[in-house]
Amino acid sequence: MFSQIIFWLSLSTLVYVYFGFILLLIFIAPFRRHAVQKKDIEPSLSIIICAYNEEGTILDKINNCFSLDYPQDKIEIIIVSDGSLDRTHDILKNIDNQQVKVLCMPERIGKSECQNRAVTVAHNDVLFFTDATTMHPPDALKLLVRNLYDPTVGCVTGRPVFKRDESMTSLGLNKREKYELYLRRKLNEINTLFGAQDCMYAIPREIFVPTRKDLDSGFVGPLKLLEKGYRTIYEFDALAFIERRPPTVADEVARRSRIVLRGLRGILHMRHLMNPFAYGFTAIALLSSRMLRWLSPLFLIVLFISNIALLYNPFYQGTFLLQVLFYLTALIALFMDRRGHRINSLLYIPLYFCILMYSAIVGFLKLIVGETGQTWETRR
Length: 380
What we know:
CATH class: Alpha Beta
Strand content: 5-15%
Largest sheet: 8 strands, mixed
Shape: globular
Distance between the termini: 52 Å
Strand order of the largest sheet: 3-2-1-4-7-6-8-5
Helix content: 40-55%
CATH topology: Spore Coat Polysaccharide Biosynthesis Protein SpsA, Chain A
CATH architecture: Alpha-Beta Complex
Radius of gyration: 22 Å
Number of domains: 1
Order of helices and strands: HEHEHEHEEHEHEHEHHHHHH
CATH superfamily: Spore Coat Polysaccharide Biosynthesis Protein SpsA, Chain A
C-alpha cells in the first residue's frame, strides 16, 4: 500500500508539473488577466555588458549597441571585463568614446558582481543588461522599454534566438522552446514571470536591487522586485540573437545544469516567496513552474523504484515496461544521433527530456557540493 501511494504521488506530481499547471493557467486566465499598459517611450539607457575572453566579439557588440534604433544621446555603454585572460582588456582600454565606460576586473568576480559594479557608475534611467555574445535587431530596445510605461512592471525581458541545426539537441530545443513560450504567455497574461533571460532584460535604475555575488542576478533580481510588488514581463517581439554554435548534447547538459544550479540556489535564497499564505497564487506558480520542475528527476527516480516494489501486480508490470521502453528509446536516439542519423520526434523527444533530467541531477549535485555557477565560459 505504501509503495502504491508513493507511486501515484510521484506520477501525479510529474503530470501536474508538465501538463496540469498549464491547464490551471488556461482555466484561471479569463479571471486573472492583467494586461500590460504599453506606450512608446524613450528613457535614457545604460547598456551593461559583462564579458570574459571576448576579444573576437566585443567590438562587434559595441557596434551593435550603437546600431540600435534609439536616440544616441540617451545611451551610455558600460562594459565590465571579468578578469579576461585574452586581449579583451587591451581592446577595451583603447576605445576612445565618451559614451563607453570600461571596468576591467583584475580577477574573476562573477557576472552578478560585475553587474552590481556597473550599476554603481550608471547614470541613466533604465538599466539594460545584455551579453557580449548577443546581438539585437534595431527595434529591440524600443520594444523592450515600452513595457516600462506600466507602473506595475519592474523588469522586462526579451526572447533569445539560438543557432540551430538538424541535430537531435536542436530539434529537442525547438520543441521545448514552443512549450516554454506558451507557458510564458500564460504567466504574462495572469501576473508575472519568475526570472529574466540573462542575455536581455531591462530594469529602472531607481528600483534596481543588487544581487549577492554568489547568486544569479537574472533570476534573483526579478524575484526581489516581485517581493516589492513589481512584475517581470516577457516581450516576445524583442529579440536577442545568440552568436554561438548550435548546441551539442554536452553543451546542453552544461548549460541546463548551470541554470538548475543557479535557479535552486536562488529559489532557496528567496524561499519565502513560495508561501501561499503570504503570496497566494504567485507562490503556487513559482513552486509549480520552477521548484517542482527542477526536482522532477527525484520524482522520476522515486516513481521507478516504487514501481519495482509493485511488480507483483500486472498493472504495475505494464507501467514499469512503459518506463523501461521510454528510457531505452532515449538511449537508441542518443546512439543514432552520435552516428549522424536523422531521427523523428518519437525518438528525440524522449532523449531531450532525459537530457533535461540528467542536467537537473548534475545541477542538484553541484548544489550539494557547494558550487555557485557564477563564473562562465562562452561556448564558441
